[in-house]
Amino acid sequence: MNLQAQLLGDILVSMGIISRQQLDEALQLQQSLVEDIFPKIEPGRTELIPKISATRKKVPMLGQILANKGFVTEEQIAPALEIQVTRATALIRLGSAKLARSLGVGGAISHAVDLVNVLTLIMKYANVVTDSVASTLMLMDNKTGELVFSVPTGPNADELEDVRIPLGIGVAGWVAENGQYALVPDTSRDPRFYPKIDTVTGMKTKSILCVPMKSKQKLIGVLEVINKKNGACFEEEDALLLEIFSHHAAIAIENTMLFDSRVGSSIG
């Protein structure tokens, strides 16, 4: 599958412009067109390579397919393409060792079946993946629409146990509401920053990286890391790594909740 196309599709989905079902439909159509247009190269038939290069332009881009199907407009695609270029550049620079670590620790949490254990592992590894000082995982309370702190790490983390954040409030609330990650290099310059958390913990938050946690397009919560250990700001590379990790984390949380509900039903 074309990485650039998948990246654009994921961006459009995260922005709420298209659904995952619409993306899958467009990607399947694109793949079928590729198979119809491109000849298969048999061993030794290298003379077909120029033909493939010549026909490559005949395959519609993902954005064009989505537009033809009426899923998006040109005005909606434009900002997504800008994000795509930025993220594709960061992905190319992403070291294979860091990517492997993010995938590895993401897979490690999938083996845990206890929710508290899963949440604790997510917090531990989120700090490892991004080299951050502290992290918070806020789960969505579907009844109230609020974000609830779960197993935060860092100085005075216990003080956050009863704190709830309404949708749209703070960086975390903005991420949950918009379905996009947020990079905040300097909290003093970002109006979305919610200083009440620092007041509660006594910690000085300088920079933040926050990503949405989704499983099957359902928002589970948000994952936020705070302050790089080396004092630097979080970058696009960190965002990509944390997004990859958070995808595994969201699935692990949902699977654990499903497991707990089934166990509870069988006991009851």
Characterise the protein shown here:
The chain is of the alpha+beta class. The protein has two domains: 3-93, no CATH class; 96-267, GAF domain (Beta-Lactamase), CATH 3.30.450.40. Helix content is 52%, strand content 15%. The protein contains ten helices and six strands. The chain has helices at 3-14, 20-37, 49-55, 62-68, 74-93, 96-108, 115-130, 170-178, 196-201, 236-267, and strands spanning 132-141, 146-150, 164-166, 182-184, 208-215, 218-228. The protein has a six-stranded antiparallel β-sheet, sandwiched between helices. The longest helix is centred in the C-terminal third of the chain and has 32 residues, at 236-267. The N and C termini lie far apart (46 Å). Residues 1-6, 40-57 and 262-268 have low confidence and may be disordered.
What's the structural blueprint in terms of helices and strands?
Layout: H1 3-14, H2 20-37, H3 49-55, H4 62-68, H5 74-93, H6 96-108, H7 115-130, E1 132-141, E2 146-150, E3 164-166, H8 170-178, E4 182-184, H9 196-201, E5 208-215, E6 218-228, H10 236-267
Antiparallel strand pairs: 1-2, 1-6, 2-3, 4-5, 5-6
Helix pairs in contact: 1-5, 6-10, 7-10
**Beta-strand proportion:** 5-15%
Quick one: how many beta strands?
6
- By helix and strand content, what is the structural category? alpha+beta
**Number of spatially distinct domains:** 2
The portion of residues assigned to helices is: 40-55%
Series of secondary-structure elements, N-terminal to C-terminal: HHHHHHHEEEHEHEEH
Distance between the termini: 46 Å
Q: Let me know the largest β-sheet.
A: 6 strands, antiparallel
**Overall 3D geometry?**
globular
- Average pLDDT, all residues: 76
CATH topology name of the largest domain, in short, is: Beta-Lactamase
Number of helices: 10
Widest β-sheet, arrangement of strands: 3-2-1-6-5-4
